[in-house]
Structure formats: structure tokens, C-alpha cells
Amino acid sequence: MVKILHAADFHLDSAFGALGEDQARQRRQESRGMAEKMVEYANGQGVQLLLLAGDLFDSGDIYGQTGEELALALGSFDGEAVIAPGNHDYYDPHGAYGRILWPENVHIFRDTSLTELTFPQYECRVYGAAFTSPAAPEGDVLADFTAPDDGWTHILLLHGDLGGRDSRYRPLTEAQLAKTGVDYAALGHQHTCSGVCRAGKTFYAYPGCMEGRGFDELGEKGFLCGAVEPGRSSLSFVPFGTRRYEVLTVDVTDSEPLSAVLHTLRGDTGRDIYRIILTGETESPVRLESLRQELADRFYALELRDQTRMKQDIWDRCGDDSLRGLFLRKLRRDYDSAESEAERQKIEQAVRFGLAAMDNREI
User: Fold this and answer.
1) What's the pLDDT at 42?
2) Helix (H, G, I), strand (E, B) or coil at 231
3) What's the CATH code of the domain at 39?
4) DSSP secondary structure letters along 105-153
5) What's the rounded Cα separation, in Å, for the pair 44 and 66?
6) What whole-number distance in Å separates Cα of residue 221 and Cα of residue 213?
7) Are residues 156 and 86 both part of a single domain?
8) Are residues 227 and 262 in the same domain?
9) How far apart are CA 172 and CA 114, in angstroms?
10) Domain-terminating residue out of 310, 328, 350
11) Based on the domain organization, do 28 and 56 belong to the same domain?
12) Looking at 239, 260, 292, which one is the last position of a domain?
């Protein structure tokens, strides 16, 4: 049995272009610090193999301190670290990987064909390959490969796109993974944690990215940690991101917008980046800038979007000589003869849904 930590897609030195200059600079520095924190966690958990499935850098053009800090952090790891470069940080002897002075416990796959690393101290073999250019659309890197049945633990480390049949980023299939016979396939490229899945006898997973960088990467981010042994993988997701991106939709109908937002928020959001979308009907236009100032201190960064509409009397067009008018007149008779407030509210809701359907809009 070998204890592993599986992480991927750090995308160090990302631009964070949607943030202001100072916040973007801070986010880049926070991202650089993730490796050191991750190694501290790994050492505390007795992790033996640190498996990094590519796109550690957002590009080959990185700040000098970024590579230095990553190498220093990995050098403090008590076990062995293995890297399979991805499409963003593809291996180039003259690029980022070639310029960094790596410690002895860091092993980097450098070729597009499958290579084996042996760790006899853990009775484990790790197989992997690198991107050597920004794309790898063709060829089956796993062709003719099957892990030996020797009682050791066998792990595959790859950056690739499972299920992306026409992908430019090393397309993979479950059938290919199953054919390898490895105990665990540690994958990178997809930015959402897949949880541990199974193809034949092979367990596999994407851990997702380490830090969200935009509103297409929502919620908790982190890595997978646990044990792998012949025929068994027991891994759990560990939330580890410094900040979360979240999208919150708030209906402000019959409510003051600030109160509606505060009522909807859950937990401490002070370190997070939110997009709040206001919906519903209002008596007057939402004063977005005033609302932004009221809420600013509750978030690291905040984006507000107004999708509200002005409230109208639902019975306004009862007299129209149209399908709309017939619909409204019928329901108005039901409304006027209703015996309870609850009945009237249901009829009002039916009217709103009906009018929305006629206008081909959501409600």
C-alpha cells in the first residue's frame, strides 16, 4: 500500500484579469503559496507519493520566484514527487521545467511516450507521459501497455481529456484506462473534481483545479488524498483553495434588495469572490452602485448583475381582444370568486406563469 496525494491544474501565474491590479497580484502570490501548504499537509498525513498531473504553470512564461518557490516547497516533501506536464506547462528543455533547479525527490516525465518510474521503497511503479507541445490530438499513449501482475501497486499519471473524443488535449477513454490494469489513474486537465470512478479494475479520478480563477470554476477546490494498493483505492477530496468563486441568484420581489441578499447569504463570505444576480419584480429600479457599496466589505470581490423587471399590474390587459385578454378575463373571474387569500395567491401565480409563457420568458 502506498499513501498518495493527487493534485493538478495549479495554473500558477494566471492573470486573474477580471480582478483589479492589486487583487490580481495578491491572488498570484496566494496561488504560489499553495504548494508549500500542500506539502505541509502531505507531510503531516504521512503521504509517500505526491502525484502532480500537469498544468502546474499557466504557461511556460513564468515569474522567476514562481519556479523557485515550487521547487523549494517540493524539496521539503518527505516522500517522492512526480510531475506529468500538461498542455499549458508542456515540457520544453528551454522552458520553465528546464530552467528550474529541481530537488532530487522531484521526478518529471519528459517524453510523449509512456515512461516508468520505480519506487521499490513503496513497492510501487508510476507510469506517465508529458505534453511536449500545447496540444496532443492524436495517438494512443496507452497503446500496447498493460501493468504487470507482480503484487506491486501500479499508478498511471497523465494529463488528458477523458471522454473528449475529438479533444486536442490527449483524448482518453474508459476502455483505454481499463485495459492498462493499473490500480489507480491520477488524471489532470478537468477543473472539477470527479470523485473516484472505476473502469474495469482500474480506479481513476480528476482532483479538479487547486484554485478557482473565474466564475466557470465555482465552489471548493483542492486535491485527493488517501491510499492505493493492488485492487483498491481509498481517496477523499480535501478542500484546500484559499478563496471560492460563487454565483448567487437572489429574488428581490416584495423585498428590499439589501435585505434579500443578506437573508440569502450563508456562512462567512469575506474571503470569497461572488457574482450576485438580482431577479424578480421591483417597484423602482435597483440602485446597483449603492447596493455594491453596502455589500463590498462582505466579500473579497463582488460583481452585481441586475436582471429584475419593473412590477406591473397583472390584470392590466384584461380588456384586450386577444388570447391574452381571454386568458386574463377567465382567471380574473376565478380570482374574484375565490373564497380564500390562499386561492387568490395561487391564481395570481398561475397568471404570472401564463403571461411569462406567452412572452416566452422565464419567471
Assistant:
1) 98
2) coil
3) 3.60.21.10
4) TEEE--SSS-EEEEEGGGTEEEEE---SSS-B-S--TTTT-----SSSE
5) 24
6) 10
7) yes
8) no
9) 14
10) 310
11) yes
12) 239
| Alpha-helical regions (H) of 216-274 | 257-264
Q: List Cα–Cα distances, 310 to 146, 275, 284, 363, in angstroms.
A: 64, 22, 7, 13
SS3 2: strand
Residue 297: Cβ within 10 Å count:
8
Collapse the DSSP code of 98 into the 3-class scheme (helix H, G, I; strand E, B; otherwise coil) and give the result.
helix
Q: How many of the other CB atoms lie within 10 Å of CB of 224?
A: 25
* Residue of 251, 247, 249, 222 lying closest to 237 (CA atoms): 222
* Bridge partners (DSSP) listed for residue 80: 49
Are 147 and 200 in a shared domain? yes
Distance of alpha carbon 22 from alpha carbon 12, whole angstroms: 17
Please report the sign of the dihedral spanned by the C-alpha atoms of residue 122, residue 202, residue 185, residue 228.
negative
Using DSSP bridges, classify how beta strands 106-108 and 80-83 pair: parallel, antiparallel or unpaired: parallel
CA distance 276 to 87: 33
Q: Are residues 275 and 204 in the same domain?
A: no
Number of domains in the chain: 3
103 and 56 fall within a common domain:
yes
Mean pLDDT by 10 residues, the chain (363 residues): 98 93 95 97 98 96 92 98 97 92 97 97 98 88 94 98 89 96 98 97 98 95 98 96 96 94 93 96 87 96 90 79 89 88 84 81 57
pLDDT of residue 363: 54
Q: Which three cell numbers stand for residue 202?
A: 482500474
Q: Which amino acid is at 103?
A: P
Q: Are residues 96 and 185 in the same domain?
A: yes
Residue 214 DSSP code: S
Same domain, 70 and 194: yes
Containing domain of residue 294, as a range?
A: 245-310
- Beta-carbon contacts of 114 under 8 Å, excluding residues fewer than 6 positions away, are 127, 128, 129, 141, 142, 145
Sequence-distant contacts of 350-359: CB under 8 A, at least 24 apart: 351/314, 351/315, 352/314, 354/327, 355/314, 355/324, 358/323, 358/324, 358/327
